[in-house]
């Protein structure tokens, strides 16, 4: 028998190996999944440098399995249901799943990838089923109901009573009391909604990144400030179009173009792309997605005993009813629309003065408003930008918190981050006591969704007698630094930074026992109070002077500019209020549908705007196909809450104006009664404890210039 050359070679190698008496090295051990291990990082922050995309699905599966066992143990208990062995025990379940979900959510919103999006899509129905398996578990609900039925006899603390109330209501509101046939139908609705809402958000991100306006001639740059041109050149270079200028649909890019470009044809092109997102007849078209979401929400509301989705949502808010929401909206809409019509006439006159016949168009508003502000007040965003350097604005927010409550913010470079743009700060009390961790992530990128937001990776709570400190992050999409200049933002963006910082403070300064009642876990129309009240400090001249300094010279913003900002305080308020309020009405119209039909999205929106009399010169702030707040986030039938909360914040800030901007007694009361309490009491009770009465709408109307 002939022996092949391969066999001979292998025999020779084997002999050589045996002669040396060497054992082949074992294969490399697979690295452990950091999501399934204890975190040894400072303050047990996420080890972002070790977490990989492939780690998430196993961690989710393990987290769901662990919580399932914990739920089974509660149900199997031979002891009679008590607050401790049922309600509190349920509250303590799902630690691994919550930790994994929070890290995953931070990445999918701020630094996503195709792999993460695939995991997100695959997980949506699985997580919906897992949640339904808990909420619709008849034996678990029976134990909760047994505790709730005897609550009058229990010696519960106010926070324990609140947890029992919230837990019982959550189960009932999510179908625990339904019969089995309706539960099965509800499960199908929830699963489809989970898939569609996730798809809606991914489509918007794809649309945000899917359009670029590439300019090849310097003539196309007419009217644009040098900084805007420089940023566009860098954007072009990043996209491999060096020597050209690129504008995108991200607001730091497109808004300055709308404001300053004298090329009306190019403003129109970019504006139409901006408002056309999600309605382009491509794979990312959201029109059928959103109408299906709206119809499914009607079905779910009806199953749960509500007339509309809005009735269902608002039953668990301060507003309580659609009628109450519309009453508030109407109070603001009427004077705002009247003001906007006056503004439109002024801008049209400027358009005609430029020799352009016809009507003012939506893509003209930003441009002529900027020119009018310059003419009336000798003020524009580009004059102000040099005084609003991003890190200085952030320090201004930190200093404000220091003056109010003695908080300090120390930069940490030993804590892993998920992207090089992210910075980390340790937050401490005046006496040095650790409060929590704050990440800031402020620059736009293709992997990040648009807008600005705040969230928590770990919520404050007390577990086994130990206080668990929060880990919070603030995200924005502000102007990126260039080779020549740091990030210089607008005055409005400075207020946005303070706004998200207010949300962070709500989570950081929480002082409750239970995670589900911690920080920002409050009704939707109360959650914006701590964020919006911070905008008042951002805009107050006394505070502005402390952080608005010229990025080159370090000189504080001149009093003359502050006077101009104050004089221009009511400028364009009609437009700003109307475009926002129109979105609030649109949200309510989608969610007061009484039949599970799927109307044409464009026709429905047009009818909604016609009903309120929106003038053609203004486009609703969020058109339906990219209205992420209501179709892929938690603001369905809740976009009005910004206005509702603005009533609260305008009235609440008056408490400081009636004393002093940093009055320590008022600041302590606000911290103790609002920020520290989270959702541990009814919102109106918390507000009245701070203010001594219910809020009034007049401060809001006066602040917007609608009430003299």
What's a quick, concise take on this entry?
With about 700 residues, the protein is an alpha+beta fold. The protein has helices spanning about 5-20, 55-75, 85-90, 95-110, 115-135, 140-150, 160-175, 180-210, 225-240, 250-260, 265-275, 285-305, 310-315, 320-355, 360-375, 380-385, 390-405, 490-510, 525, 530-540, 540-545, 560-565, 575-590, 600-610, 630, 640-655, 665-675, 685-690, 700-705, and strands spanning about 210-215, 245-250, 410, 425-430, 435-440, 455-460, 460-465, 465-470, 470-475. It has 29 helices and 9 strands.
Task: Note down, in words, how this protein is organized.
This protein has 708 residues and is α+β, with helices and mostly antiparallel strands. Helices cover 56% and strands 6% of the residues. The chain has helices at residues 5-20, 56-76, 83-91, 95-110, 114-135, 138-149, 158-173, 180-209, 226-238, 251-260, 264-275, 287-303, 309-314, 322-353, 362-377, 381-384, 390-405, 491-508, 524-527, 529-539, 541-547, 559-567, 573-591, 601-612, 628-631, 641-657, 664-675, 683-691, 698-703; strands at 212-215, 245-248, 408-412, 423-428, 434-441, 453-458, 461-463, 466-468, 471-475. Strands 3-4-5-9-6 form a five-stranded mixed β-sheet. A hairpin with a 2-residue loop joins strand 7 (461-463) and strand 8 (466-468). The longest helix is centred in the middle third of the chain and has 32 residues, at 322-353. Residues 1-22 have low confidence and may be disordered.
